[in-house]
Amino acid sequence: MVAAPRGYCAGVDRAVVTVEKALEHYGAPVYVRKQIVHNKHVVETLSERGAIFVEELDEVPEGSVTVFSAHGVSPMVHAEAKHRLLQTIDATCPLVTKVHKEAKRFAEEDLTILLIGHEGHEEVEGTAGEAPERTILVQSPEDAETVEVPDPDRVAWLSQTTLSVDETMQIVRRLKQRFPNLIDPPSDDICYATTNRQAAVKQIAEHSDLVIVVGSTNSSNSVRLVEVALEAGAKAAHLVDYATEIDPAWFEGVSTVGVTSGASVPEILVQGVLELLAEHGFGDVVEERLTEENLTFALPPELRKAVGSAAARR
Predict the structure, then answer these.
(1) Which residue among 24, 44, 80, 123 is the active-site one?
(2) Has 123 been annotated as catalytic?
(3) Cut 0.85: pTM above it
(4) Span 275-289, pLDDT tens digits
(5) What is the strand order of the sheet 237-240 is part of?
């Protein structure tokens, strides 16, 4: 059984195409701060085309074309880029940008922001950077029980967009028990793609002896899919970047295999897994589609303007 929706979301597709178009328009090298999306294959493929991935902006020559990843950056990073005269293209997912705007608004209202997420994740660093003096990270239900705030009546919550929906709401429920006046964001910040992929893997997991999730270990949403599959009833679940990482021993005693992929995974990698499964006798493929996804995002305005100006001069 193959889950759907799976693979690329609108924000990932926009970010990857942004780097591809930047390479076409400006030529190599184009620098990218952090991984454009959390997928080994995508990063390796773009590197072969001339993208140079760096951890921090001090590794980028002054004046260079630089893309910010889909996970977003803090105002400090924007300021550093301006200081270094970098020609920046911001590929932050628009849904992450929405969370940044909510953080700024809550801070302007003198609220303490409880940010649900994982320490060190680029998205969390970017969101917290919008209001570092007013943001407290909450990583688990246990944190929700112990977190202290200056004023219990002036608290709001936000979340990393790629978390487990169930765990996030569990944390929110515990926070609301402690802070009854806790303010919700204007809308649920767990992104549509994360929600859909988790619901879709639940749909196949309860009927699967084994679930294979295609995705990288640093991809939060991919890791969560393994956890959700196990919680939903799969007898075993494994995360792989490529079909070659699948251990044939996993198939012992297995009659049904479920397959899905994280939001930053190109479909070609899923097809590679299905081909390997067919070689091991699991060739009868049934797609279980939960819902259709039709959302698309326009390319970053900096890139649209540059490409449009070049086209007009021709």
Answers:
(1) 123
(2) yes
(3) yes
(4) 999 999 999 999 999
(5) 237-240, 210-214, 257-261, 2-4, 287-289
